Amino acid sequence: MNRLLSSVPVWVILADMIYTFVLSILQSFNLTQSQLPKDGLPVAPDIAFSGLQVVANGGMILIIGFGLYVLLQLNRAVLQKSVFPIGVFRALGLIAVLAFSLPALWEWMWALVRLAGGHNTFNLDSPRYLIVAVCQPLVALLCVWRLYGWQRLRSHVAANVE
């Protein structure tokens, strides 16, 4: 049960990334042809820019999605008290997750400071974005906490071997 509850923020972010990627693909297919300006050089077609956006979003989803998948595996291994081998690619995936989610922890801290100062810092117009924004620092904390647990397990196993 603990594994299920602790992995909910990761699954929420994965689902939102996939949903946003599908929306990006659908939006790139539903372009309206814009008029070229009458003076000056013609601009590149919209399809090229939307295609670049889809490729960039797809690359981000592959990198962050792989890191989130590694975090799910690490979460399961630490909760089962088994040593999880972390190689170069898994470490890079976890670093990408931390680079993606640690700034959200920093921003939430400042948002709470501003809220305590009397400023309205939360926008409730888009609940999807608010839910993902709440999940991002939870993913950062989960990653750091599970890496700490992994290190404790690893040192405990090494001490028992010697």
UniProtKB/TrEMBL annotation:
This is Integral membrane protein. The lineage of its organism: Bacteria, Pseudomonadati, Pseudomonadota, Betaproteobacteria, Neisseriales. The chain crosses the membrane at residues 7-27, 47-71, 83-106, 126-148. Keywords: Membrane, Transmembrane, Transmembrane helix. It comes from the Bacteria.
